[in-house]
Amino acid sequence: MMKHKDQRVGIFVDAQNMYHSAKNLYKANVNFAKILETAIADRKVIRAIAYVIRSKTREEQGFFEVIEKQGFELKIKDLQIFPGGMKKGDWDVGLAVDAIKTADKLDVVILVTGDGDFIPLISYLRENKGCLVELLAFSETTSAKLIETVDEFIDLSKNKRKFLIKK
What we know:
The protein is α/β, with parallel strands linked by helices and 167 residues long.
């Protein structure tokens, strides 16, 4: 795919999805700074948002600060704990709404997630907003249909040294 410096990009990161993929696959942390640098590819950044869930653990505040220092705007939602102990925390709808609201100012929407729930969003952005959609994720934990739907897929697993930080 052709990338050029005048393209306006928006980057939307499903931080929980990426964090758990790196932890479960490689027992490592994600290098969000390198993901941002790779996603931007010397283009104009309009928005770079990382979506996180606050579960009130000690190490997460440091994690949030690191992501912010690396250049992301943070959107934080508290983990919901239901009677009976079930836990829920995701940003799928919020991320999708932000991408749609921002799409008119973008040439390229970049998603950083492996979650196949974003397929309808990708189709909408491409068909109704005229945006190119790029995806950065670990292939082992990414929906194959999601990969087929985007204009470009960058497999973070192919360069673990660059995109992971060993614990």
